[in-house]
Amino acid sequence: MNTDLAHSILGQLGRAKRADDRLTITGDGDPVFQTPWRVGTAGAAALGAVGLAVSDLWRLKTGKPQSVAVDLNAATASLRSNTYVLRNGERPVSWDPLSGHYPTRDGRHMFIHTNHPHHRAGALRIAGAEGDTREALAAAVAKWDGLAIEQAIADGGCVGGLTRSREEWNAHPHGVAIAKLPLIDIVKIGDSPAEPLPKGDRPLSGIRAFDLTRVLAGPTSGRVLAENGADVLHVAAPHLPYQAELLMDTGHGKRCAWIDLREPAGVETMKTLLKDADIFTQGYRPGTLAARGFSPEQVAALRPGIVCVSLCAYGHEGPWSSRRGFDSIVQNVTGLAATQASLAKPRNLPVQALDYIAGYLGALGALVALARRVEQGGSWQVRVSLVQVAHWLANLGTVDATKGAAELSDELLLPLLTESVGPLGRLRHLKPVVQLGETPAFYAKPAEPLGTSPAQWA
Q1: What ranges make up the beta strands (E) of 325-386?
Q2: How confident is the model at residue 94 (pLDDT cuts 50, 70, 90)?
Q3: What superkingdom does the record give (predicted)?
């Protein structure tokens, strides 16, 4: 398949196509699954760009590039990789039964996210549900106009979004603001001397990545770094909600530690770790960590030369930049879900393309910024959001969804899977998608539960 889209992503980051690039993308093209959106093309391009960025680091380390191969079916499957996880032969549950679409009084549909307990309780309370069942929530939402409950959910610190058409979203003030942003950007936020890559037999050997993220996009970014040799410390806090079953998808190759930023000792521990980190990835809304002393500029002052990756739902500009959101919500507000089916009966995509692609792009930005640090020094900030991915995906156009499959055949799927045994039991999960000619990607350790490891570098 054509590799131009992968090179165009890298081109946005100032990395021109090289004569010695050896990227191959194989597969028949979209649709792989039953969706009109070109999710396979998008996923394969993002992963192809990741592979070339890994090759660039290997070139900087050894003087020679390596070949990169991406299979489109594997790339597409990776956009729903959590659905392929089996734990001791059973499929873990990751969706609350109340999450989903709800008709409103004015004939619209509201998608409400309830996977976190406080979001579930908040949605029931804000809507005025007389009970904690899906039926009770539906009856309550049906008494609201769509825009009114969308605003009430947002004002209440919960998560939901009104299903819009593409035309509605493109005319929305936030849609207009996001349309002006690139898919991904890198900004220099400080000066520091150039740093060579650490020695080692993998592209990211010796690179330390502090992963302060939850759910899918951020943890996926860290997983990509881990599969190429980085020491990834995934940090969470015991008091914050976390869909721990998602670690069976995104936790491979990482160590998981607790840090509580409500406590002075936790703040000091994080500062100490960041002083020795190369990459700091965080998945909170703009400004959230700055209030605790960990804005990109503050982190760069702690550790000159660090790469700060910021992943969020709605981007760093526009009226919704501080709004909470997840893949499912952004699919609905941007018109992807309406195009998947119809505005009258919206349906989410069969993949969580925004989450996983944002994760790949976060890793890509970190890799490109590391290369810049080798060649010119400096501290860097990488910015990616789910809504920017949604705009990019929509701009790729549509295909005939009926030609896609409900699921990959066993003949196609089984070669993409592997098993690992560790603290979470026997896990079946997807292998790394990007195939590298010299340094095959792999997970050096199995996934582990939150808080298993001490908050220190290996």
Answers
A1: 379-385
A2: confident
A3: Bacteria
Give the distance from CA 198 to its chain's centroid: 26
Average pLDDT estimate for 15-42: 97
What is the number of other CB atoms lying within 10 angstroms of the CB of residue 135? 10
Helices and strands in the chain: count of H runs, count of E runs? 17, 16
CB 47 within 8 A of CB 441: no
Cα–Cα distances in angstroms (integers) from residue 158 to residues 89, 347, 363, in the given order: 34, 21, 28
Give mean pLDDT, residues 168-178.
Answer: 98
CA distances to 8, 16, 354 from 11, rounded to whole Å, are 5, 5, 20
- Please tell me the distance from the alpha carbon of residue 112 to that of residue 153, in angstroms, as a whole number: 9
Of 59, 75, 55, which Cα lies nearest the Cα of 5? 75
Collapsed DSSP state (helix, strand, coil) of residue 440: coil
CA distances from 299 to 184, 208, 358, 395 (A): 21, 15, 22, 35
Phi and psi for 293 in degrees, rounded to 5? 90, 15
Whole-Å CA distances, 330 to 232, 336, 355, 392: 28, 8, 10, 13
Confidence of residue 228 (pLDDT cuts 50, 70, 90): very high
pLDDT of residue 85: 97
Give DSSP secondary structure letters for 247-310: HHHH-TT-EEEE--TTSHHHHHHHHHHHHT-SEEEE-S-TTTTGGGT--HHHHHHHSTT-EEEE
The answer to whether the CB of 110 falls within 8 A of the CB of 104 is yes
